[in-house]
Amino acid sequence: MGLAQRVTTPMTVDEFRSWAARQPGRWELVDGQPRAMSPASSTHGFIQARAAYLVERHIELSGNPCRSATEPPVIPAAYKRHNARAPDLGVTCAPPSDDWELMRPVFLLEILSPTNEQDTRDNVWAYMTIPSVQQILLVDSTAVRGEMLRRGDDGTWPEEPVFLGPDDAISIDAIGFSCPLRELYARTHLVEPSTESGIRQP
Fold first, then answer.
1. Contact 84, 13 (CB under 8 A)
2. Total of domains in the chain
3. Is residue 192 part of a domain?
4. Where does the record place the Putative restriction endonuclease domain (predicted)?
């Protein structure tokens, strides 16, 4: 995420939508302030593209009605009139609609970069207020490692995430997807080329 453009009066989501449509680049709304999303590294982009491909392919092959989207607007439940965050990947099982934001997301993915880690972690706190969100995955863009947060059956979030390494599996419960974490890095310099895939097919 890049630098914010300060506004005197906090923007609402509706105001932001109109404003952002006239601006160059990509923006998100954080507590009523527009925040520019600076260009990510190529490694970040490879991980995002790979994750989107694996998840969407699984959804299509399994015949699951859920859908995925890259950088969709999501509206936190806290201070919702003034926030529109943009995760790297989101999954929803809500029916198709013409709503601007991603409705009822169940899974959100964020990719951590050295230049935006604090902004990204702030987003995670916001995502945790969305009632429909069941899982949040953070993956690093400098090493094969991640953090999984999973909402408990009682609706609460754990005090600490589950820390993941290259041989650990990630799963998206809502769509029955599972693969080794290293699969998200398969197109990057961070892993050795492999002819094998650990992706679980439907």
1. yes
2. 1
3. no
4. 13-180
Range of the domain at 130: 40-185
Q: What is the pLDDT of residues 35-91, one digit of tens each?
A: 888 777 899 999 999 999 999 999 999 999 999 999 999 999 988 899 899 999 999
- Asked whether residue 99 is assigned to any structural domain, the reply reads yes
With beta carbons less than 8 A apart as the criterion, state whether 113 and 44 touch: yes
80 closest CA partner among 6, 116, 36, 131: 131
Does residue 30 belong to any structural domain of this protein? no
Q: Which residues pair with 92 in a beta bridge?
A: 67, 105
Q: Across the strands, what pairs with 35?
A: 4, 28
What is the rounded distance in angstroms from the CA atom of residue 193 to the CA atom of residue 112? 23
Region of residue 94 (left: phi > 0; alpha: psi -120 to 50; beta: else) = beta
35 within a domain of the structure (yes/no) = no
| CATH code, domain with 56 | 3.90.1570.10
